[in-house]
Amino acid sequence: MSAFEKPQIIAHIQKGLNYTVFDCKWVPCSAKFVTMGNFARGTGVIQLYEIQHGDLKLLREIEKAKPIKCGTFGATSLQQRYLATGDFAGNLHIWNLEAPEIPVYSVKGHKEIINTIDGVGGLGIGEGAPEIVTGSRDGTVKVWDPRQKDDPVANMEPVQGENKRDCWTVAFGNAYNQEERVVCAGYDNGDIKLFDLRNMSLRWETNIKNGVCSLEFDRKDISMNKLVATSLEGKFHVFDMRTQHPTKGFASVSEK
């Protein structure tokens, strides 16, 4: 295979930053994106950029008390475009980027850092209520309804006496009607767990040997089809979620 036949990634714009970036997300239906991270002095930062004439223009910089680890626009409407973030202290905040001084929603969601966040039911993607899922180092995965204060609508945690595993990634899927919805969570020990939110039960679990870095359904708003899991050591697994075998679970292929 010659160099030209390989997939090419061409840098469009490059910019150096004076802080550690943990996450970055496109602002829906715009040429803007947000970056989230922490300054060396230990505070959190959200920056809003716009692409203008082939260059990046910083529109806004917001500094917060705690470093910000992850963010999503998945549970907001296209009109509001609120950003939901998880920080190092376990707080879930929802920000109006036009007026970011005080969050529009705030809850102390976890005892430790929120590693990962996902949203569904917003942006016209997925049926049903807007919801946010967070995964934390404290071993719990919690689902939040921004319209309900303080308490999660679902809480998946290890049973007493079971080891708490660091949750690295979460993803919503199967939101093809008002009732159905699943959350998939990946952990540092290679565990993948699929939670059914309609029946409030663990539907399936497996282990892919290495820490699960990222999980994603091909689409959130259709009946479960494909799930891709990437792990340490550069491996990725693709699961066929359409047919579940009673004992063997879902068929999969993996590639290094």
Automatic annotation (TrEMBL):
- Keyword Repeat set for record: yes
Keyword Repeat (UniProt): yes
WD repeat feature ranges: 132-145
Extract the InterPro entries matched here.
Answer: WD40/YVTN_repeat-like_dom_sf (IPR015943), WD40_repeat_dom_sf (IPR036322), WD40_rpt (IPR001680)
Keyword terms of this UniProt record? Repeat, WD repeat
PANTHER family in UniProt: MRNA EXPORT FACTOR AND BUB3
User: Can you name this protein?
Assistant: WD repeat domain 92
The protein's gene is named Q96CR6
